[in-house]
Every structure is written in structure tokens, then in C-alpha cells.
Write a structure and sequence with these properties.
single chain, mainly beta
Length: 268
């Protein structure tokens, strides 16, 4: 999950975003790749971190629904990161666990643990576009970002943030099979080298969702993380907000703990 910030896109900005296509020149491809590599380089070395999340799902005509969970991320510089999410609330989700292995150059490996039937299930690569925990996030969205899994193109420079600064907007074009997206248009703030907004385009190149990142804070003197993120469905305006709290880095998380056969032990 890639987890102040630019304001919500206006209708005119959405129209511009939907038509904003890099021209594919070698210069734009090179610059887009360099920006993405800088983001990757600046976030390298965190080893692992744990954070608590409170998700609020809001849909038109319905009462907001809350989900509480903990997210554990293990950095693997060669081979792809691992991420485990375990839910504690509400009652019908308590004990549900997901595990994602990000794989360079190929679809992620994902498993879920279903406490009601005490079963670990591996998700098929084609199933990653489904809703994650009934939210606007998909299973694909909760994986960690892997530099080698995308082609990149520079689109434009634009103002964003408070106070405003010159930010860079690039296209992330998935290279792996079964992605639900044609491209992700990402705006990056160079003061943190982190995204402030990502617009997800469906396979027909229409804007589908928008993810905004707010209230970044620096941890361990280097690693910037948002305290709030919001995913908006641009078709029906449903919103899934996540408030992050209690980031902890260097907890000693290891690969043995992040194994599919260990998922029941994470269920709470």
C-alpha cells in the first residue's frame, strides 16, 4: 500500500489527468525512471516496520464502517518485500489475515487466512483486483511497490503541497501479468521523495480511483510515512480512509514469521 497534500482533483483536473499521456520519448522514459529510482533509493534500508491502521469505509446512503488492523512490512531488497495485514475489528473480520510477497517481474504471491473455517487460502494471480476487506483498496493495492515491476514515463511538473513546491508527475506502467490497471499516474513531492497522489487508470485508460497521502512524518531520521491516506472511487465517490498510528521500525521481523503456514498464529 503506497501509502500538506494536494487537494482533491477537480473535474477539470480529472479530465486533464485522463488525457495526460507522456509522449514516450527516450528523454521522458529516462527521466521517469530516474525519478522512480530516486524514490526507491531514498526509502531503502528501513528493514521492517509495524503500524496500526483504522480504516473507515464511506459509501453513499450507508453508515460509515470501521476496520482496525495492524500492518507488518519486511524489507527484502533482493526478491521483493513481504507484507502481512491482520484485522482485529469488526467482529466479522477479526482474525482475518492477508500475506503478500512482492515478486520482481511477475505477479505477487498472496494468501489469506479465514478464521471462520481455520483455513489458509492462496489467491490466484487473476484474483488480485477484488476488493480488500470490503474497501476501495484492492488486493493489488496493498502490495509494496517494486521498482522493477513498472515501466516509467515523465509526464509533467506541477505545484503541490503546503507550502507549494514543484512536484513531479510520472506514469507507472505495470509490466507484470494480471494487473487491474493500465497505468498509475503518480505525483511525487521531492522534499520527501514520496507520493502525494496516485490516480489509477483502468484497462480502458479511464480514471478509476485516486489515492491521496496526507500529513507525512519522518521516522528514524530518514523514513517518511503518511499518517492518513484516502482512496476515492472516481465512479461512485465511495471513499476508504486510513488513519495510521504507532509506527515502529526495526522490530526484528523476519522471513520465517512471514510464511503462509504461520498465518494462523497472526490471527487475533
Amino acid at each position: 500500500m503506497r501509502i500538506a497534500v494536494c487537494a482533491a482533483l477537480s473535474l477539470s483536473a480529472l479530465i486533464f489527468a485522463s488525457s495526460a499521456m507522456a509522449d514516450g520519448t527516450p528523454e521522458n522514459i529516462k527521466r521517469g525512471r530516474e525519478i522512480a529510482a530516486t524514490v526507491d533509493r531514498n526509502d531503502a534500508g528501513f528493514a521492517d516496520y509495524v503500524v496500526n491502521g483504522r480504516m473507515t469505509v464511506k459509501r453513499a446512503g450507508g453508515a460509515p464502517a470501521r476496520r482496525d488492523f495492524q500492518m507488518n512490512t519486511l524489507e527484502v531488497r533482493v526478491g521483493g518485500d513481504k507484507r502481512l495485514v491482520s484485522f482485529s475489528q469488526p467482529r466479522d473480520l477479526a482474525g482475518f489475515v492477508s500475506l503478500t510477497f512482492t515478486n520482481p517481474g511477475q505477479p505477487d504471491d498472496q494468501w489469506i487466512y479465514m478464521p471462520a473455517v481455520k483455513r489458509v487460502k492462496r489467491l490466484a494471480a487473476r484474483d488480485k483486483t477484488g476488493s480488500f476487506a470490503g474497501s476501495e483498496f484492492s488486493y493489488e493495492d496493498i502490495a509494496t511497490w517494486e521498482l522493477s515491476n513498472y515501466d516509467y514515463e515523465f509526464i509533467r511538473e506541477e505545484q503541490c503541497g503546503t507550502p507549494a513546491t514543484k512536484c513531479y508527475t510520472i506514469a507507472n506502467i505495470p509490466k507484470y501479468q494480471y494487473s487491474g490497471y493500465a497505468r498509475l499516474v503518480e505525483t511525487i513531492d521531492p522534499r520527501m521523495w514520496q507520493p502525494v497522489r496516485i490516480v489509477y487508470f483502468d484497462k480502458t485508460n479511464r480514471p478509476l480511483k485516486q489515492l491521496e497521502f496526507r500529513n507525512y512524518q519522518k521516522f528514524e531520521g530518514k523514513f517518511w510515512r503518511p499518517m492518513q491516506i484516502s482512496m476515492t472511487n472516481l465512479r461512485d465517490n465511495s471513499v476508504s480512509d486510513i488513519a495510521w498510528s504507532d509506527y515502529k521500525f526495526g522490530t526484528g521481523l523476519n522471513a520465517a514469521q512471514m510464511a503462509a503456514n504461520r498465518l494462523p498464529s497472526w490471527s487475533r
